[in-house]
Specification:
alpha/beta; 2 domains; nine-stranded mixed sheet
Length: about 325
């Protein structure tokens, strides 16, 4: 082996080693940042709109998440009662917008069950959508979205806790797909959320990348995704719910998953559920991950609210409050 080749190989080895160390340091910093939360920054809440519906009041307001980031929130509050309501913070899936909560099978069900619903618009969605130019920017934007969503959800707990119509001891979490997996980090490090629902969630990003049923459906044009997926999983490793969910116990969790999930492997669902502490429960539905039929949505929402009412009754009973 000549001298130039040896030097080249050493440069490659050192570059790889430095990259590994840099990635490890970056992950450690991110893990640390997930655990910290600064409440000192002003919330700057601004009312946008308010209108009366048949069973509830529909509001929109905004608050300041990270400095300079205005976060719109869709709010549905039961009508006709002067008591302080329990509240649900709902984080939607990766391709959704906050206005999906306007669906009557969501809005009416939640408010008739006696809960107020708060749905923050996530970075990159709805009014906060920004155009990306290439795949790398999309991956970077996804990581930024996760970071902001975690911080902004904790800020939203602050906002809701200050409302006179909400009981701050009864603010619950509900996440769907991306929102559920991101919400694991929120619940893990914010003890103010006494119970949570994870709909269509899974853990172990590497397992999800390697074993997703979707891989078999990719044609040759998109075969590159099979190669890129593990790298993206590694890049997003600090936010993998598998590393955080065990910190939620002993607060109760409900998992809702699909038997015919075309995106998430059953092994990844089992991994997350197995890592979660007690108490926990999982419900299965004969449905795909995307494009759920209305009857399935009604069943999922109904089951979630019934479970949450049981948890809420326990908290009310322990605290001696009257609803």
């Amino acid at each position: 082996m000549n001298r130039k080749l040896k030097i080249f190989l050493w440069v490659v080895v050192l570059t790889v080693a430095c990259s590994v160390v840099a990635k490890w340091i970056s992950d450690c910093v991110t893990f640390r940042d997930l655990k910290t939360y600064d409440r000192s920054h002003p919330l700057n809440v601004k009312q946008i709109s308010s209108s009366n519906r048949t069973n509830y009041i529909r509001e929109e307001f905004s608050f300041e998440g990270c400095p300079g980031e205005e976060v719109p929130v869709l709010t549905l509050v039961p009508a006709g009662n002067t008591n302080r309501y329990p509240a649900i913070i709902l984080l939607y899936g990766i391709g959704m917008k906050m206005n999906f909560a306007d669906r009557d099978d969501v809005a009416n069900a939640v408010t008739k069950a006696g809960f107020a619903l708060f749905v923050p618009e996530q970075y990159g969605r709805g009014r906060r959508r920004k155009e990306s130019v290439n795949r790398l920017q999309e991956v970077m934007a996804l990581r930024h979205r996760i970071v902001l969503t975690i911080k902004e959800t904790r800020r939203l707990v602050d906002v809701i806790s200050e409302r006179p119509d909400i009981d701050p001891a009864r603010i619950y979490f509900w996440g769907a797909s991306f929102g559920a997996m991101t919400g694991c980090s929120v619940m893990a490090y914010d003890q103010r959320l006494p119970a949570g629902i994870f709909t269509l969630a899974a853990g172990d990003f590497q397992k999800m990348a390697a074993e997703s049923p979707y891989r078999s459906k990719l044609d040759e044009k998109y075969s590159w995704m099979k190669v890129v997926a593990p790298a993206v999983a590694s890049f997003l490793r600090p936010f993998d719910p598998i590393y955080h969910i065990d910190r939620i116990a002993p607060r109760p969790l409900l998992f809702q998953n699909a038997n015919n999930d075309e995106l998430i492997a059953r092994s990844a669902v089992d991994a997350l559920y197995g890592t979660a502490g007690e108490p926990k429960q999982i419900l299965w539905y004969d449905s795909p991950h995307d494009h759920l039929e209305r009857a399935v949505i009604e069943k999922v929402v109904g089951d979630a609210l019934a479970w949450l009412q049981i948890q809420d009754d326990k908290i009310v009973s322990r605290s001696g409050k009257s609803e």
